[in-house]
Amino acid sequence: MRKSHCTAVVLAAGQGTRMGIDVPKQYLEINEKPVIYYTLQTFQKSEVIDDIVLVVGRNETAYAQDEIVEKYRFTKVGVIVEGGAERSDSVWEALQVLSDEAAENKHFVFIHDGVRMLVDETILERAYEAVEKHRACVVGVPVKDTIKVSDGDQFVARTLDRGQLWQIQTPQVFEAPLIKEAYRRLMEAPKINVTDDSSVVESMLRIPVKLVEGTYENIKITTRDDLYLADIILNQNN
Questions:
Q1: Nearest 5°: CA angle at 177, between 171 and 183?
Q2: Which one, of 92, 81, 65, 72, lies nearest residue 183 by Cα?
Q3: What is the band of 16 on the pLDDT scale with cuts at 50, 70, 90?
Q4: Most buried pick, 5, 175, 231, 237, via CB within 10 A?
Q5: What number of CA atoms fall less than 13 Å from residue 88's CA on the CB side?
Q6: Do residues 11 and 54 lie in contact, with contact meaning Cβ atoms separated by under 8 Å?
Q7: What residue segments make up the domains of the chain, in order of their start?
């Protein structure tokens, strides 16, 4: 039986600039509901997740409270915080919500991109089992295509071994004290290029991170094509 407390940090502070639109992509609608609805609905229904910290853009807290949390009755959302300039800043703001007392107990944090709307309960369960054993884990899928490294002039420098490559997704899950300490060090360190939460743990704490198999459907909504694909997958699954 699961005994540990699990908090989901859902990052929904993006601005959708790659789509060339004014509406943040997490608020774009599929089947008359915003993208972020589907993400939060999975965590709301999950038997793994106990509560949710929702991270939104600047000046969006009132909108998120009224039009997302209250409208759709997401009772697990206990706190809404404004994100920062970078993804790492947004995660750091969310981690401040976790009390030191909570962090000292058996407590796991699931950090998830709000626009990965097709995450499912099976993924959350796998991640929970992994983090219980390994303290830190990330969801991903083995790479299907051959990956080549460019020399900078669009010539092939070398070909990577596809058998060792994974495409990383979210959630990325950690013991609360571990991820808080890793981000604390990151915030105090000179500017370091990190692209995800596991990179912070790897670079700041040198702790190994377990890979957990997700699904190829767990896509991130970044372009219009992703939005169309998510619509198709969602309708097929329903």
A1: 70
A2: 92
A3: low
A4: 175
A5: 20
A6: no
A7: 5-237
Residue-averaged pLDDT of the chain:
93
pLDDT one-digit tens code per residue, 138-153: 999 999 999 999 998 9
What angle (nearest 5°) sits at the alpha carbon of residue 119, between those of residues 113 and 125? Answer: 110
* CATH superfamily of the domain spanning 5-237: Spore Coat Polysaccharide Biosynthesis Protein SpsA; Chain A (3.90.550.10)
The span from the CA of 37 to the CA of 117, in Å, is: 8
The predicted structure's pLDDT at residue 18: 57
Q: What is the pLDDT of residues 62-93, one digit of tens each?
A: 999 999 999 999 999 999 999 999 999 999 99
pLDDT of residue 104: 59
| CB 8 within 8 Å of CB 43 | yes
3-class SS letters over the chain: CCCCEEEEEEEECCCCHHHCCCCCHHHCEECCEEHHHHHHHHHHHCCCCCEEEEEECCCCHHHHHHHHHHCCCCCCEEEEEECCCCHHHHHHHHHCCCCHHHHHCCEEEEEEECCCCCCCHHHHHHHHHHHHHHCEEEEEEECCCCCEEECCCCCEEEECCHHHCEEEEEEEEEEHHHHHHHHHHHHHCCCCCCCCHHHHHHHHHCCCCEEEECCCCCCCCCCHHHHHHHHHHHHHHC
